[in-house]
């Protein structure tokens, strides 16, 4: 249903432990195949791949995506992702992730997945020879840079 990104740090370890103990969580180990979860470029690639697969992302810190990709992601992040605010590893109480995810209705999940699908053109680079009806990642980046000048 939902996808989260984490590394094998102390904090990430608790997230992984909760996921493994849960019946509703599927752990995606992004460290295999040379991808490192602590490398921002790798994390963004995994994030983009998960969006392309229709996964609803789960974030634990606003800096993971909401603050980094202002030009590409909607301001209302609750429309396409789940945010579980955890400042410290001690805040990650047993079962918190599962309780949060189970609390999402099927209707909410469907709406979020539809929003994720609408995000796809904003996160990929289109073939420059094609005629798009929407802006791609490159268009949004250039537009964002020009607005800051």
TrEMBL record:
<keyword id="KW-0812">Transmembrane</keyword>
<dbReference type="Pfam" id="PF03016">
    <property type="entry name" value="Exostosin_GT47"/>
</dbReference>
<keyword id="KW-0735">Signal-anchor</keyword>
<keyword id="KW-0328">Glycosyltransferase</keyword>
<keyword id="KW-0333">Golgi apparatus</keyword>
<feature type="domain" description="Exostosin GT47">
    <location>
        <begin position="46"/>
        <end position="94"/>
    </location>
</feature>
<dbReference type="InterPro" id="IPR004263">
    <property type="entry name" value="Exostosin"/>
</dbReference>
<dbReference type="GO" id="GO:0000139">
    <property type="term" value="C:Golgi membrane"/>
</dbReference>
<comment type="similarity">
    <text>Belongs to the glycosyltransferase 47 family.</text>
</comment>
<protein>
    <submittedName>
        <fullName>Putative exostosin</fullName>
    </submittedName>
</protein>
<keyword id="KW-0808">Transferase</keyword>
<dbReference type="GO" id="GO:0016757">
    <property type="term" value="F:glycosyltransferase activity"/>
</dbReference>
<dbReference type="InterPro" id="IPR040911">
    <property type="entry name" value="Exostosin_GT47"/>
</dbReference>
